[in-house]
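Tutorial, part two.
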Amino acid sequence: MADNRFNPAYDNKIYQKFSKKTIENKVENKRQFCEEVGLPFNKKVPILCITYPLTDKNNLNMLMDVMNGIMEQPVEIVLTGIGTAKFQKFFTDLAEKDKNKVVIVENSEDEKRKIYAAADIMLVPALSDECIDEARQAMRYGVVPVMQPKDFAVDYNPNQEKGNAFIFLKDSPWSLFATLIRALENYKFPYDWKNIQIGAMELE
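Running the prediction step on this input gives:
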């Protein structure tokens, strides 16, 4: 039985409910979330989310290695910011350096659901249980993961217009970064991106 706490069609904690048929309502969640947390709202700029703990087990070193490159992209980053001291300091410093690009929010279920409803892409650097659980929850809200191969994640094929994720095959920061760039290029095409989001939401 589906958990309606994590179903955007029934979730009372998000700003506006939406489903696969009303996926266009997701942008209103993004607008109101940005207003609440103090990020500039621009529907052409994707929100990247990180909602799993910032730990070695979740391969946060991989994200640290390419974060300078990610920060140069037209993106905004939202994270819950709970984890080991090293990673907490790294992302806290990042958020303080650029408040218009990185924001850290409370690590609670309610806040996570708001993040899922607002975000466009989840960076998934590991196949740990924590990362996979977060990816699956976020996909129900139309968040597209950038991740390594997993049975529920189908790499987007633009020729066939099928897929619900962007998959990197090598366990390296540069492979993750190149795959994120591929995702960002596809984000520029709203019709195609909508189909990828719907594919993510079909995951059960």
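Helices lie at 26-37, 60-71, 85-97, 109-118, 129-139, 173-187, 190-201. In part three we will examine how such features are distributed along the chain.
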